Amino acid sequence: MNDDPTDAISASIKKERVARGLSLADLSERSGVSKAMISKIERGEASPTATVLGKLSGAFGMALSALLALAEKQGERISVRATQPVWRDPETGYLRRALSPPDHGMLELLEIELPANVRVPYPATAFVFQHQQILVTEGTLEFQEGTTVHRLNHGDCLQLGPPVDCSFFNPGQKVCRYLVALVRR
To answer: First and final CA of the chain: distance in angstroms?
Structure first.
């Protein structure tokens, strides 16, 4: 694995695009992300935001977690906290930690830290390939699922419904921490 997770993510995006025989223009059209931004990401000149990664994974027809897993170690059955892959959204400060061993098992656990007053939107395509539950461990999370807003507090757990555009929002003044459990469809 690369020491810099951004480099590994950039390489994975390019590898996936090339493997699918997509030009930058094709991927741009499918994802709604500009060709210039995709090119910068692939060259490691820009770090993709969570929203951009969600759009790209949807354009590839894969879960965001699967796209990120391409950049993470494989084959281990234990995940030691000190070596767990961490990615920070350069735009919002959103932090994603992969808790599960990177063995591509059916279940994937993620730990998220969402800074105060930050909203992270995801398109429905980012949720098509997985069942997902969210468990708030600290703070408050407002999860908008289509037109429905769920207010989740410490200990609350939400099972997501059918894939729709969503957003994660921390209305509090402190970081919101939550776990995401994913099972591939």
So the answer is: 27
Average pLDDT for 81-95: 93
Percent of the chain with pLDDT over 90: 59
Q: Which residue has the higher pLDDT, 134 or 12?
A: 134
Query: Which residue in this structure is represented by tokens 């709604």?
Result: 32
Q: Do residues 105 and 39 both lie within one domain?
A: no
Do residue 116 and residue 138 come from a single domain? Answer: yes
What's residue 105's pLDDT? 66
Examine the domain organization and report whether 94 and 140 are in the same domain.
Answer: yes
- Rounded to two decimals, the pTM is 0.67
Higher-pLDDT residue of 158, 50: 158
Total tally of structural domains belonging to the chain = 2
65: containing domain? 5-69
**11: CATH:** 1.10.260.40
